Amino acid sequence: MRAAITLADAEGLAAVSLRKVAALLRSSPMRLYGYIDTKEELLDLMVDAAYGEMIAEGPFQGGWQDCLRTMAQRTREAVHRHAWLTELLSGRPLQGPNAMTYSEAALAALSDQPGFEDIAVTLQTLKTVTAYVVGALQDEASEHHAVQVSGMTKEEWQLATYPYLERMLATGRFPNIARIVKEVEHPSPAEEFERGLQIILDGVAARMNS
Questions:
Q1: What is the pTM of this model?
Q2: How far is residue 8's CA from residue 79's CA, in Å, rounded to a whole number?
């Protein structure tokens, strides 16, 4: 499984196959089939290993906002170590031992906090934060892919397309987009991630105080 992660880190998720993993291990694909039935099982094991890395960073501490922010940041850091992880975070909950241990720790950290006595509220809060985190990380991954495909950074692409955008804005049909261009600062991906996360946390806090 570590061989599969090494392969995915170097060449991307599409490069992972039982044949290539077996070659890295100086073994045969048939020997791997004695432990793993499908590539999907291998991918599940890879994700579970990533959860193991997040568990190894220690328990969640502090208030509920601190706990949720720590969970979000750990996920982002894991994705930055393993870019392929973004593709595998959505979908049905994983039931590997590390994934379940991580989920249990997250639920326990929130359940001990005032306002999270109802486990359904705790679960929905975690799902809401996770949905934001996965979506934000997919946006980051899409931008990284666009840079690789086009050969232009985001700033270079904006400069190249600005004459067209300027003509469109001059029609007066897009006043709010014009405001964004003129008024909104464009923070770093890390700052943008934190700003979005804080909006989600503020929403949770408002619900708790209502």
A1: 0.87
A2: 12
